[in-house]
Amino acid sequence: MKGLYKRVFFCGIFLLAVSLIYGQQVSPGVRLFTENEPERAIPLLEKEIAGTNPSPDLYNYLGLAYSQTGNYQKAVEVFEKGLGVFGTNKKVLYYNQGNAYYRLENYNKACDCYSMAIVADSQYAEPYLNRANALLRINDIDNCVTDYVTYLDLRPNDPQEPKIRALLDLLRKEKELRIAEQKRREEEEIRLKQEEERLAAAKAEQERLAAVKRAEEEERRKKLLEEVANSLKQSSDTTNMSAGAEDVLSYEEESDID
User: Fold this and answer.
1) What CA–CA distance (Å, rounded) separates 62 from 145?
2) Strands 21-22 and 25-26, how do they pair?
3) Is-above-0.70 flag for pTM?
4) Does residue 211 carry a pLDDT above 60?
5) d(CA 36, CA 68)
6) Which of 63, 78, 93, 137 is most exposed, with minimal Cβ within 10 Å?
């Protein structure tokens, strides 16, 4: 599995098996590149590209040379420039640019480049494998599995076929575990929601009973106050009537003046 992750853009070198020839002579920059001297090849390739009527293939060689020296950002820029030049091999440039992005750990951009290479040629196997590796890095297992399977369909005799199939088995098991985990979480969410609804209903019922109790207590106090008030009123009336009867003086009686 680790070997798959480390599969990088250098295989793009072999996509250009035919050396660049100018008038029966190999380009000096390309010659140094093919002799595995990328650092010496870079200034010559830069000069050749800046010259008159440069070969479109020079952009790919220069980008690969920068990649071999570890300057992946510069490689991305060279490949991008080459994509805007008429006559360049777009699918190879996209593929190698994707490899440079992969080394920069920009896996989303790498996937975009590999996808463009595949659009240019759906039978181009290498981008499927490298896109699968990039998708695995960003945890997109479903699409990752699809790309590995497609790659094996296009390259059934690939030396890495046993490792890829072993990885596919692991990924399928991982997918099953994720599905089971997702189902568990969904069921847990349902249970939590049901429990929240039960607690909310119980709380609402408690509040309703408390409100009823408060209303009954309020009514009881109200009746008690009314009874007390009525009682006080009756007692006052009785007192007034009694006091009036006892305090009235009769003027018809004779006064004892003497």
Assistant:
1) 33
2) antiparallel
3) no
4) yes
5) 9
6) 137
Helix segments in the chain, DSSP class H: 2-5, 28-34, 38-50, 57-68, 72-83, 90-103, 107-120, 125-137, 141-154, 161-247
Please tell me what DSSP assigns to residue 85.
Answer: S
Could you tell me which of 89, 131, 138 has the C-alpha nearest to residue 114?
A: 131
- Strand-pairing partners, residue 21, are 26
Helices (H), 84-106: 90-103
pLDDT in tens, 123-181: 999 999 999 999 999 999 999 999 999 999 999 999 999 999 999 999 999 888 887 88
pLDDT at 178: 80
Element (H, E) at 22: strand 21-22
Long-range contact pairs involving 21-30 (C-beta distance under 8 Å, separation at least 24): 22/55, 27/55, 27/58, 29/58, 29/61, 29/62, 30/57, 30/58, 30/61
Residue 91, both tokens: 């699918």
Q: What does the pLDDT look like over 88-115, one tens digit per residue?
A: 999 999 999 999 999 999 999 999 999 9
State the Cα torsion 34-40-42-45 to the nearest 10°. -70
* Per-residue exposure over 131-142, b if at least 16 CB sit within 10 Å of its own CB, e if not: bbbbbbbeebee
